[in-house]
Amino acid sequence: MTSRTFAKELAAMFSASGMSVMTPHETDSATKFPEELRRLIADDMARFHSVRIRRGMASQLERGYMVSAIAFGYRAERTVLQGGRDVGTVWTVCEAEAVLIREMYARREAGESLRNLAGRLNEAGISPPGGGRGWYASTVARILSNPIYRGWFFPGRHVAKVATSNRDQACLHRSGFAREALRIVGDVQWFAVQEPIAVVVGSDETRD
């Protein structure tokens, strides 16, 4: 039964009993009440499905699967059990792109600008993430500041919202999810380039 049908049937029950129903916009239960009730039911169902999605994402992350768009340097593979049941997506390192990422970190650590790094990639004819038109300083900055390259995945805000149960909250409020198999650079090098990136974000260096 749809929320609209249920709302109409409930409204008819109120009408048959002679009860008067007050709604936010109208006092006539025969006209506005079904629509008001339908809207309330629809809102509640939307919240219910949102919680289910977050719980599902939390479960995927806890089991080692990934729940976001693929990052540069990796390939996505679906895990399918015997019988055809699709259980999640795992990432694996794309070594050809990992070589480029290590070079980007090394050059940035040595003091090369984000803009120069982007220029090198464009001159080499390397395809940018997401199939964009080219590499920009901001593109390089996003890569160098992504913790996945040091083996940690941090869910986006749509995943990390508070869920209903204590278990969901504990999972979604963790500081991150270890993905050591996806590590491309060491912690020392990753952290070494973060402060320079933070300083130049919003400056001329990252403006495309």
TrEMBL record:
Keywords recorded for this protein, A-Z: DNA recombination, DNA-binding
Recombinase domain mapped to chain residues: 71-206
Xref: InterPro entries: DNA_bind_recomb_sf, DNA_bind_recombinase_dom, SSR_resolvase
Keyword NAD attached: no
Top-level taxonomic group: Bacteria
Keyword DNA-binding: yes
Classification via PANTHER family: DNA-INVERTASE FROM LAMBDOID PROPHAGE, SERINE RECOMBINASE PINE-RELATED
Protein name: Recombinase domain-containing protein
Organism: Aromatoleum toluolicum
Taxonomic path: Bacteria, Pseudomonadati, Pseudomonadota, Betaproteobacteria, Rhodocyclales
